């Protein structure tokens, strides 16, 4: 996979599985290529159809091939997993862009815990090596 910059916009969610007994989800998304470096949206309170429209940037290196989205319901002192999904970056590398609603599959992928709208743009980083030769 090429080196470059991946811009990710987590636009929103729809029909997120309700994890709260009373009220609706207080949802946020963790986004990462490498688990050691996670980025997070703000929490949108009391809705199962949140709008985030938040932008994140990742520097991609050779071997980075998947981006992960973990959606949670934020509760006092705890969090409940709503769903997780991932996108193969080949989908972005091929066209330079990606704009889709991505399903949060339930157990065995037979149903869904909702979906999130993800927009991504990829720019290749070109490295130019300059050879410095001394003139006689």
Automatic annotation (TrEMBL):
InterPro entries: C2_dom, C2_domain_sf, Ingression_C2_domain. Signal peptide: none annotated. This is C2 domain-containing protein. Residues 1-102 form the C2 domain. Pfam families: C2.
